[in-house]
Amino acid sequence: MRYFSFIPVLLCCALPAACAETLIEAEVNPVAGDLKIVEDVAASGGKAVSMPRDWNPLLKAKLPAGDAFSLWIRYRGGAVQLKGTPGGAQKELKWLWDKPQTFEWKSFGRFNRAALGEEILVIRGGDGGSGPLVDALWITTDENAQPPTMNQVANQVLPADAAVALGVLEAPPGTLVEAEKEAPVANVVEDKAASGGKAVRRGGDWQPVTQIAVPPGDAFKIWVRHKGGPFALKTQADGKTQDNWQWKKPNTFQWTQAGVYSRESLGDKLIIIRNNDAQNQLTIDAVVFSPDKIRTLPPFEPDAKLAPLKINASVDWNKNIGKISALHWGTNDYEILDPKNAADAQFQQLLKEQDFALIRIHNGGFSDAWTNAQTRAWDVEKIKAGFDSSTGYGDAKIILNIAHWPKWLSEDAVLSPQKEDEFAALTAQLVRIMRDDVKRRIDYWELTNEFDNTYEKAGKLDDLWRLFNKLAAAVKKEDANAKIGGPAFTWPKPQWIEGFLKNCGQNIDFLTWHNYASGDIYDANETVLDKANVIAGMARGAVEAARKYAPNRNIETFLTEMNVKWVWEPMERRHGNNVGACFMAATVKNVALTGTTGITHWHVKGGAYGMIGGDNALRAPAYLYRWGTRYLTGNIAQSQTDNEKLLELLPIQRADGSRALLLINKAPHTVIIPDLVNLFPLSTNALFIQRIDAETTKHPTSGPAQIAIKNGEFPLPGYSLTLVTTAKKIEQ
After folding, report:
1. Which of 267, 478, 553, 716 is the 20 to 30 Å CA partner of 247?
2. What is the pTM of this model?
């Protein structure tokens, strides 16, 4: 076995003062303030910089000698801006609106010294969220020069054979082990894209692909370079083996951060297994053990050390304070975009059993998935096949989101006015296809998705409103009865909503936006659970704005994406556990009380966000949503507890005369209510009780537990949902 230890170092120009090229590593030239130096596998030196606040500097640099310069920035993520300091005053020079998913060199252009001043700055845009990561800045006096290739960490102290083995491999700092060094010869395959020309692959479902000895150290961040997938790291906890799945399936080799693990949980060997996905067969190239420290993820189990707390609760069944409908228990789906995925009979059966009344079809690559670049038209047969296979939709109402124009039309972040008409014509064509060829009713045409930040940063919100109106007119021309809305705001920023309603309000039937609770998997459960009320407050603002700025129209309102975490990686386990289910229940309740028409959870199936896992396993939120569509629709009765921060009630007076009560225990400990039976006065029907809690997360196939009815004090476990109903039958 051979280990290669990586030492991140500064990359800089080694030429004298008159040198034509200067390369500046962002992390060694930090600005003051909240700048963060972060580890990143693909950054030169293994590090890059981020800034948590919008419009703040990421990097400053002194200009070298010369009269004119070409400037290049290597970054990924959000937008960045170049500022000069002519005469000592900052001046905006150029925005880069692209948001590359991987580190890329992008040119700011060429400027003379008078325009740049003696110092330049790179500024973070107003993206919200995590923003861009900046790796390096390159300054050259040669207008024809291209930036350097940064395929590996430069100036590393490496053995000669290690350098040869790495080739063009970008690797994070730490101990790198080639997968084939530890694998049986039968599993080693030749692959030109792998470092050293070799990688590891294995037939046989659920089998170990490689086993690698863990180097010295107490804790590691594990990086795996692979293609295909998914894969799982096997770990030990409390004497039990756990499979920690990573659901990416890249077509080419990529690094995936698989989490931080203690040596105790890893044991002497890191074991990586594959699943049963033969179509995306897992191939592993290398693994890096990056020294780290263990950060504790928020627990999904209650704290046994905390004493139970008695909280009084009451329900006034004679006073209704709002309504909740099946439209509030909706979801998003993108399996339909690929007929092969949609044809999964087990998934369609689960979807049918969920019995959603509202499904939003959305994916950022929607238009590319359903169009043909050669014909510049929709692929009618593929669309028909997707709908034909999606038998689990049943009679659900559909929100069809036209998320983006196809890449064959434009790869620009802002669509040029010259191409808007073609995009509008393409949208109208889809309306015609759905009506005449697919013959599936689309209840809501949602136009665009999260364009707000991009257009605002470009100073072109008016262009966005114009584009939206063109799309709306095209849809209406094709189908005068179509319901049109959008624009699926990233979040319901009041200024965006006001501008949209003032410019587009007369052309819409519904308004849509998104909202999430957190961007960090380590945010405390209490922080996430408290965000339910924040999200509801924003929803109330959107509903009130629709009434204010379009008073002559009965505009429906939809929160079309909602979940815990707004970024995909690292994976947020609360998306599939009982804590996340408590957050979703509180959010649905409180948003429904604002008068919002409907909510679609993000999203129905997938390893990262799905209420149904990528392996078709039901998770805790799936059981909540089954309750929602079956029992938690009707008039919301007045309720109260002594501590709404810890315990909320959702009492429902159903249309058939039965009652249902959802008790949402957000506390990390048991809560005791004095008498559950007394919350259902004068009821002549028996009470049926089920519960979602930590046990549901640990044993999801068992479903919610059946709870015995008893008089007197009734305990509610920490982080739990308890459903009580007088309905004749309660189902899984």
Report:
1. 267
2. 0.72
Q: How far apart are CA 552 and CA 505, in angstroms?
A: 10
| Highest mean pLDDT: which range of 32-36, 288-292, 699-703 | 699-703
Cα distance between residue 71 and residue 59, in whole Å? 13
3-class SS letters over 307-332: CCEECCEEEEEEEEEEEECHHHHEEE
- What's 658-723 look like in SS3? CEEEEEEECCCCCEEECCCHHHCCCCCCCCEEEEECHHHHHCHHHCCEECCCCCCCEEECCCEEEE
> Running DSSP on this structure, what letter comes out for residue 593?
T
Q: Is the pLDDT of residue 214 over 80?
A: yes
Pairing of strands 133-140, 21-25: antiparallel
Q: Are 272 and 231 in contact (CB under 8 A)?
A: yes
Predicted local distance difference test score (pLDDT) of residue 502 = 97
- Comparing CA positions, the residue from 306, 317, 299 lying closest to residue 649 is 317
Q: What are phi and psi of 72, to 5 degrees?
A: -125, 145
Query: Residue 724: beta bridge partners?
Result: 661, 689
Q: Which residues of 132-150 are buried (b: 16+ CB within 10 A; e: fewer)?
A: bbbbbbbbbbeeeeebbeb
User: Measuring CA to CA, which residue among 44, 49, 46 is closest to residue 33?
Assistant: 49
Q: Which of 511, 500, 433 is nearest to 467 (CA)?
A: 500
C-alpha–C-alpha distance, residues 402 and 449, integer Å: 7
For the four alpha carbons of 60, 63, 68 and 72, in that order, the dihedral sign comes to negative
3-class SS at 436? helix
Beta partners for residue 94, in sequence order: 82
Per residue in 6-28, pLDDT tens?
Answer: 323 223 333 333 446 788 888 87
- Give the separation between CA 239 and CA 9, rounded to whole angstroms: 41
Q: Which two tokens stand for residue 86?
A: 């002519």
Cβ neighbours around 571 below 10 Å, total = 20
CA distance 599 to 588: 7
One-letter amino acid of 46: G
* Maximum C-alpha span of the chain: 92
Asked if 459 and 472 count as a contact pair (C-beta separation under 8 A), the reply is no
Q: How confident is the model at residue 129 (pLDDT cuts 50, 70, 90)?
A: low
Task: Report which residue type is found at 422.
Answer: E
Q: Under a CB-based contact definition with an 8 Å cutoff, are residues 157 and 91 in contact?
A: no
- Taking phi over 0 as left and psi of -120 to 50 as alpha, with beta for the rest, 712 belongs to left
Which of 144-158, 277-291, 311-325 has the weakest average pLDDT? Answer: 144-158
Count CB neighbours of 226 within 10 A: 30
For residue 706, list its beta bridge partners. 690
d(CA 594, CA 601): 17
Alpha helix (H) residue ranges in 517-642 = 525-549, 578-592, 620-631
